[in-house]
Amino acid sequence: MSRVLLAWEIGSAYGHLMRFAALAHELSRRGHEPVLALCDLTHVDEVLGATPFPVFQAPVFASTVSGLPTPLGFAESMMRLGFLHASALAGLVRGWHSLIASVRPDLIVFDYAPTALLATRGSNVPRIRVGTSFCVPPRTTPMPVYRWWRAEPTARIAEAERIVLANANQVLSRFALPPLQCLADLLDTDDEIITASAEFDQYPDRTDGRYWGDLANLDHGVVAVWPRVGAKRVFVYLRPRSRDFDLVMEALRGIDAAVVVHAPGIAPAQVQRHSCANIAFSERPLRIDDVRRECDLAICHGGSSTVEAMITAGKPVLVLPQHIEQLMTAKRVQQLGAGLATDFEKPPPDYRRLIRRLLDEPAFTQAAAAIAQRHAHDDDRSARVSRVVDRFEDLMRGATSASTIAKRDEERAR
C-alpha cells in the first residue's frame, strides 16, 4: 500500500474537491491510502460524507495584498498568493515541509498548489500536477497571459516574473533547494494531467497539451425536481452573492421555462423572494448527469467541469464569470458558438434577452450538439479516473517514460 498526498492550495467551490474525491476513492479501492490537504474545508463533509480519508488544512496565504492591478498572468497572481514577499513565502514553504514530513507520502498530486510545488522542488518523492487547463498552464517563457484575446504590456509581464522568480529563489536558497532558472521551472513535475477536453482549454494556443477529460463524478447529488410549468428547462448554478444573481432570477421569472436553481449558501429570504410557479430551489447539489440530459440550457459562473459536462451533452450555456479563470472559459464557450457570456468588468446585460436567444436560436444548441457528437464515444468518467490512477501507480513504481504510457494506452484502445 502506498500513501498519496493530494494537495490543493487555491480555489473554491466544488470542482477541485470533487476531482480529488474521485481520485481518492479509486486510490482507496486499489489499496492505497489517500491523504487530502485542502485550501477550503467548507464542502468536505458534503462531498466526502462518512469516507474516512485523512484531511488537513493546506498551508495557504491568508493575508491580502493591496495596491496591485488586476493580474495579467501567472506571475501577478502569484504575487497575491505569497510570492511578493520572501518572508511570507518562506512561512508557507515551512508549513508544507511540516505537513509532508507528517504524511510521508509516496506520491504528491498537486491541484493548483504553487507554494507546495516550490516546497517540494528537488524532492525524491514523485510529483504530478492534475487539474483544469488553468491550473496546469503551459510552461513557456514568459508564462502566457490570461486575456489571450487582447494585447497586454510585455514589459509589465517580464517585470512581474522577475520579482516572483527572485523571491522564489531566495526561499529555495534558504531551504537548500534547487533554484529556478525561469518561472516556468516552478511547474516542473514528473508528469501533468489536464482534466479537460481540448475544446475547453483556457489557453487555446497551447501546443503540447495531453487532455484526459473531466474527472468529476456527475452522479453525485440529488435528483432535480422540475416545476410542472414551462415549455423549456433551465438549470441554474450560481452564487447567491454574485453581482447579477437577482437580475438573472428576475429575468427567469418572465421566461416560459421550468427552472431549477442550486445556489450554495443562499439565505431563506432570498429563496422566498425568487421562488414562484416556474422557479424551484435545491439546497443540495443536483445530480449533474441527470440535469444535463433533462435541461435545455444551463446558467453558471463558468466552472470547467460544469461547462464541459453541459456542452458535451449538447446543451448550450450562459456563463456569468466572477474571476479571470471563469472569464477565460467564457471566451472559449463563445469561440465554440455553444453559448453566450457576460463580462464582470462591464455593466450587467439584458438577461432576459440573452436567455431568450439561447433558448430560441438553434445555432447555440447545434454548436453544442456538434461537440457532443465528437465526444459521444469518449471513456466515461470512471474509466478516466482509473487511467489517471494507473499513471499515479506508474510514477510510484518509477515508470516515468511517456512512451511506456502511450504504448499502454494504445493497447487499451484496441
Description:
The protein is globular, with a radius of gyration of 22 Å. Strand 10, helix 10 (304-311) and strand 11 form a beta-alpha-beta unit. The chain folds into two domains: 3-213 and 380-413, Rossmann fold, CATH 3.40.50; 232-374, Glycogen Phosphorylase B (Rossmann fold, 3-Layer(aba) Sandwich), CATH 3.40.50. It has helices at residues 15-29, 44-48, 74-83, 86-103, 114-119, 154-174, 245-253, 268-274, 288-294, 304-311, 324-336, 351-360, 362-374, 381-397, 402-413, and strands at residues 3-8, 33-38, 55-57, 107-111, 127-131, 191-194, 232-237, 257-262, 279-281, 297-300, 317-319, 339-341. Helices cover 41% and strands 13% of the residues. The protein contains 15 helices and twelve strands. Strands 3-2-1-4-5-6 form a six-stranded parallel beta sheet, sandwiched between helices. The protein has 414 residues and is an alpha/beta fold.
Q: First CA to last CA: what distance?
A: 30 Å
The portion of residues assigned to helices is 40-55%
> In total, how many beta strands?
12
Low-confidence stretches: 401-405
Number of helices: 15
Q: What's the Cα radius of gyration?
A: 22 Å
Shape: globular
Secondary-structure content class: alpha/beta
Strand order of the largest sheet: 3-2-1-4-5-6
Report the mean per-residue pLDDT as an integer. 93
Main sheet characteristics: 6 strands, parallel
What is the name of the CATH architecture of the largest domain? Answer: 3-Layer(aba) Sandwich
Overall structural domain count: 2
Provide the succession of SSEs.
EHEHEHHEHEHEEHEHEHEHEHEHHHH
The name of the CATH superfamily of the largest domain reads Glycogen Phosphorylase B
CATH topology of the largest domain: Rossmann fold
CATH class of the largest domain: Alpha Beta
